[in-house]
């Protein structure tokens, strides 16, 4: 018994057991706080969910919350995933998103806020082309009769008038094509 020595591997094993036991007894969190911390870590911030839902209204809040929980709450990672075309994965049926507490004032909800309505709902109204839309055949005849104007003028007023006429012509041509397509679909 006089020749008892401690070899290196058994010394490391004894230190490891001692370190783990000290950590377990002195630094072990209570079970209620650990489950609370885990649920806080997995919970997505409602402001982040709202932000992504406003950027991508085609996505469901459940899908957004699932993706935010999976990537640690990174709005940037979720946005990049959507913009790259990969889309968001569907959450499993067992995933039940935590609903944010309902607000007492209905005016703060985004669905209750009125959408911005444009004072000019379409290009025909914006460029005041109602009179030209009602007479499409006459416009085509005018285009054929007009001589070609120079591509660019030195006079600013002439350039502005030329560009305005080109805009009007493009809007009217697009309108004609749309009407022709709708007639073709109606005829089929």
| Total number of helices | 9
Tell me the fraction of residues in β-strands, as a range.
under 5%
Instruction: Give the overall shape, derived from the CA principal axes.
Output: elongated
Number of strands: 0
H/E series:
HHHHHHHHH
State the helical fraction: 55-70%
Oligomerization category of the chains in this entry: single chain
Mean pLDDT: 77
Task: Determine the N-to-C terminus distance.
Answer: 104 Å
Low-confidence stretches: 104-112
Rg from C-alpha positions?
34 Å
Main sheet summary: none
**Which class best fits the helix and strand makeup?**
mainly alpha
Give a quick summary of the entry.
With 188 residues, this protein is an all-alpha fold. Helix content is 59%, strand content 0%. The chain has helices spanning 8-27, 31-42, 46-55, 61-70, 75-83, 123-126, 130-133, 136-145, 156-187.
Walk me through what this model shows.
The chain is 59% helix and 0% strand. The protein has 9 helices and no strands.
Topology (SSEs and partners):
Layout: H1 8-27, H2 31-42, H3 46-55, H4 61-70, H5 75-83, H6 123-126, H7 130-133, H8 136-145, H9 156-187
